[in-house]
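Pasting as-is:
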Amino acid sequence: MSHAEHQYIDRATGNVVRERLLANSVVSALYSPALEKAPLLTRLASSRYVSRVLGYLNYDNVLSSRATGMLKFLRGSGIQLSEFVGNLSEYDTARKIFERQIRYWNCRPMPASLPAVVCPADARGLIGSMEQSSGLYLKQNFFSFPELLGDGSPWQRAFSGGDYAVFRLTPEKYHYTHCPVAGRVVDIYSVQGRYYPCNPNAAVQLMTPVSKNRRVVTILDTDCPNGSVAGRVAMIEVVALMIGQIEQRYSEHRYENPRHIEKGMFLRAGAPKALFRPGSSTVVLLFQRNRVCFARDLVENQQRCGVHSRFSLTLGEPVTETDVAVRSLLATPVEEEAC
C-alpha cells in the first residue's frame, strides 16, 4: 500500500476501504512542502474565484452532464438511486445529483434510544478531545480551536477543554447537513476565510485548514425543554474547494417549508439544517467538557492499527476515519459528569 493512498473503516460492515481521492494529484501539488515558498500560488488556489471556476467546470459545464459521463460516475460512486426524493429523470446534471434530497426518514433512521447526539452528515468522521489528559487528545492538529470559532468569539471559553468531532464529506456524498442535537439557537454567525480543500492530503500538509476556511457557526443550547441535555453544542459548517456557499435550510418535516436559521429558533435533532454547494466540505462539532460520551465503535475504529490513514502517518499514531451515516449515533449525553 502506497503512503499516498488513504483508507477508512466502513461503520456498517467494519471493513477497511480504500478512498478514491478527487483530483488528488492536483491537491498534492498545490499543498506540497515544495510550494512553501510560493504562498501566492497557494492563496490563489484557495480563493473564491478559483473555487467558483472549478465548481463550474465540474458541476455546471455541459460536458460534465453528458449521459455517458453521468452513468459512469454513478456506477463508480456508490450513490444509491433508490434513496432519491422525486423522479430520477429530474436528476439530469451533476449539480442536481450532488444537491439531491433523500428519503432520510426511511433510509437514515435515528437511534432507538433518545436523547442522543447524532452524526450531522453522511461523511468520514474523526473524534477527539481538547483535554490533554484524554485518550482522544490529538494535539489540535485538525484545527486551531480559538481560530475555528472566530477571533474574539465569546464562545471560546465555553468549549475550552471539551470534545469535538470532525466530519469530512467527499464529493459523492449527500450534501445536506442535519441537526446533531435538539436545542435552541443562541447564536449563529459567519467567519470569513479561504477555500482550502478538505482532501486528507491537504489536511495533513496544511494541518489546520478547517479553521482557515470560510465557515458558519451555530451555537445550540440543549439544556432546554425538549432538548438533548448535552450542554452547549457548536456546529461549524466549513466550505472547501468548489464550495462557495452554505445555504441554511432548516425543515421541521422532511424538506418542507425550509427556513433560514435565526437566534431563538428551536431545532429538532435529525432534521435537515443546511445544504453545501457541490464538492467536498467539512462539519465540526464542539462539545463542552464532560457532556458527551462518544459511541464505543467510533473510538475503537479510530485507534485501530493496520489501516493506512494519512492522518496516522502524519501524527505518528493510529488515527483512522469511520464512514458514518447522517442521523446515526455519535454520542450519548452525560449530565455534568465524565464518561
